Amino acid sequence: MFLTETKSGNKVEALIEPLAHGDFKMIKRSRMFPNFKWDAEKRNEVVKIRLKNSNEILGLMSLTDFKSELWILINLLQSSKDNAGAGKKYEGIAGCLIAYACRQAFKRGYDGTVALEPKTELAKYYTQKYGMKPFGVHLYTTLENSERLIEEYLN
Questions:
Q1: Contacting residues for 135 by C-beta, under 8 A, at least 6 apart
Q2: Which of 21, 74, 105, 122 has the most other CB atoms within 10 Å of its CB?
Q3: d(CA 117, CA 108)
Q4: Which residues partner with 66 through β-bridges?
Q5: What does the DSSP 8-state code read for residue 82?
Q6: Could you report the per-residue pLDDT of 59-112, keeping only the tens digit for each?
């Protein structure tokens, strides 16, 4: 998968991998992820995205697997401070993380079904940018849209 360097437009290879136990301390100290208490997510499946040639964490995502209901919930999704807003260094972090959740949902036999509960101001963005659909307080993606996200962001 690739992220796009916003200044140059160059593509840079990125990896998504499980967050190591030691990463939680680094995240807390770095202040690069100020909006959420990531320590509280240790009981969930937490992944990070980084450049292939760097250990710097660019984004984080916490997942809960609802096996009996055949879907995955994105509990938290956050880009680092340097990669949020108009002055971000890399484009595509959130898209790659959402697509990763979709891929996991297919691997687990859930037809790519992934949901999240967005902050009010982000709901419109998620529907427009990622094709998610409203369902109660959640937005969700499944089947064709999840396949599209995987193709666009991971392949």
A1: 115
A2: 105
A3: 21
A4: 71
A5: G
A6: 999 999 999 999 999 999 999 999 988 889 999 999 999 999 999 999 999 999
